[in-house]
Specification:
The chain is of the alpha/beta class. It folds into two domains: 3-148 and 290-310, Rossmann fold (3-Layer(aba) Sandwich); 151-287, Rossmann fold, CATH 3.40.50. It has helices spanning 15-25, 65-81, 110-121, 150-157, 175-185, 227-238, 255-263, 290-301; strands spanning 6-10, 32-36, 42-46, 54-58, 86-91, 125-129, 144-147, 165-169, 188-196, 202-208, 215-223, 243-251, 268-272, 284-287. It has a seven-stranded mixed sheet with strand order 10-9-8-11-12-13-14, sandwiched between helices. Helix 1 (15-25) packs across helix 8. The protein is globular and about 60 Å long. 43% of the residues are buried.
Length: 315
Amino acid sequence: MQVGELKIFTGRSNPALARDICNYIGTSLGLATVTKFPDGETFVKIDENIRGKDVFIVQSTSPPANDHLMEMLIMIDAARRASAQRITAVVPFYGYSRQDRKDQPRVPITAKLVANLLVTAGANRILTMDLHAQQVQGFFDIPVDHLYASPIFYDYLHQYRHDDLVVIAPDVGGMKMAAAYANMLNSGLGFVAKKRTSATTVEASNLVGDVEGKEVLILDDITGTAGTLVAAGKLLREHGAATVRAAVTHSILNELAYERLKEGPLDELITTNTIPVDPRDLPITVLSVADLLGQAILRINSHESITSLFTIKGF
């Protein structure tokens, strides 16, 4: 299959990222109509011939998550019925990934349900980034290419690579990722013990690691209300941290998050554009994942390995 047969389409969740991917690849964004009927139902029409083409549909399940998920499903179905040869769902942020297990009685495993929906709609392959839980890949019976934002973060973070840097996991579950970054940056390592009191409120109670006089980097994959980051940041400040930064792949920032960041202890929030992020004059740095996704799309299209995309320059 040649690169000339590649076609990229996007829903309404992150068209700017889709355009940046197309600019990297050197192709134009596919023509599609995505609108709503007066009653709220989603309508999709592919406005060009895609018979026999290798179709990539870029759509994050960012807020409103249900609308964007439904758009993705309908676009996949439209592409399948238009006789696309292969359909890859490019999901920079895979929503519902935090509902990946039954941790209490009578709750769903929604991450598995979403996987079933994507496959049933007609997706032949999934391209995603920094899943909340690795086991979500196993929820699919089709190939999943799972990229990591670490090479992008490393290119930015290497300026802080010195003896005074300490990488902190905001909870015990993030220790593996934090340890990998600490190894890359040749820094110290620690973690914060937290207790979630509600869906929007977190208490950070204990700190493991020495941060006095240090430049601290908190690592996490998702933040919504910024409760975990701000609680951890306050605890780190109380223990004498000189600066506190956070690097988070997916920032689903709501109004509560912006209020907390405005008054909170973070010197900088470093994130990516897997989801559209408005800095709002706050110390928020948005790094682009377009080139990484674009390279992965090119390699999938030409049946090449994407393993080298995990390689970090200088490490």
